[in-house]
User: What shape does this take?
Amino acid sequence: MKKSAVDIKKNTIQKIQKSLARWYQKNRLDLPWRKTDDPYRVWISEVMLQQTRIETVIPYYNRFMDKYPEIKFLAESDLQSVLKIWEGLGYYARARNMHKAAQIICEKFQGRLPDTREGLLKLPGIGEYISAAIASISFRIPAAVVDGNVKRVLARLFMDSTPTNDTGRKNLFESYAAKLLDQDQPGDFNQAVMELGQRICRPGNPICSDCPVQEFCKVFQTNRIDQYPVRVDRKSVPLKKMNYAIVFQGKKCLLLRRPAKGLLGGLWELPGYEQHHRTAPGKQLENMICRMTGIRIRVEEKIGTVSHAYTHFKVAANVYLCFYKSGEICLNGPTEHQWILPAEIHHYPCHKLIHKIFPMLHGLANQDE
Ligand code: SF4
Assistant: This one.
């Protein structure tokens, strides 16, 4: 019969806590956000670390702290500057919520993050995971964090076949984590389990020989490492077809800003649309750009394709060279527009797919209309 979290012996829990604590003290990575338990810095690092690898986050975190060393600087900044520094990290709603939360903290809490989970959970973008991380690391509140790394470690340690990507069964892993949590050192314990999952108990090919909890690990003891964690099959990821236009007027090209809310909100991009029919663009591209911007364009030629994978879908995008023909800008959908020199695009926060079009844009910059 499968064991539940309540079945773990107290003695075993204490041994696991001790082994993990020793390993963490000796092996923990020297990361910039670990130099302090300041809640502002813990918060920013945890937001950045969601869905993102540590090595990727380090330079972003350092740049962010250089620019916004205190929460008041973040609150006073305009959203575009925050999105610019976030550019490339993806999941831009994180940056928008963080900016909004910073303003609330400065307006209502004298610039200090709430020191309770309930208070933290009321802020935009702070959910179960981030509130538990801040509460345990900065305020020593015994709150267990449960992310993908933690679930993988727990599923293997206790040989539990509950799918780790079944959100409906998240409670089970939360109860394992809560049971195991070191009440005296919750911050260190949480970071130790997460780091164990990142570096040792990796998704494929875990380094069991270096694992501090090997002697308690059910899948290791029964030689079933390759069977855990169990995951449910996800449906195949849909593919969206997009068409983007590089519209030149003289040496400048048209850039549009997405609405503040929704996917990639507030970021800048080239005019484009999702193609729902198999008909070749051309006239359709001209019409869509006219509907979106009010101007008429001439489609010259297709100059390339780019693709990008998001979490829930993939995009394949055709890119067309176009020229302005007539009309005044009158936006329908986008919230702002700019005619910019291609070299200026680096001043605008853009999403990754648009970054992949940058080389084409720069290649065109020196060509004559
Ligand atoms: Fe993971 Fe191996 Fe450690 Fe078990 S022994 S927790 S499978 S690294």
The chain has two domains: 5-149+177-196, 239-367. The radius of gyration is 25 Å.
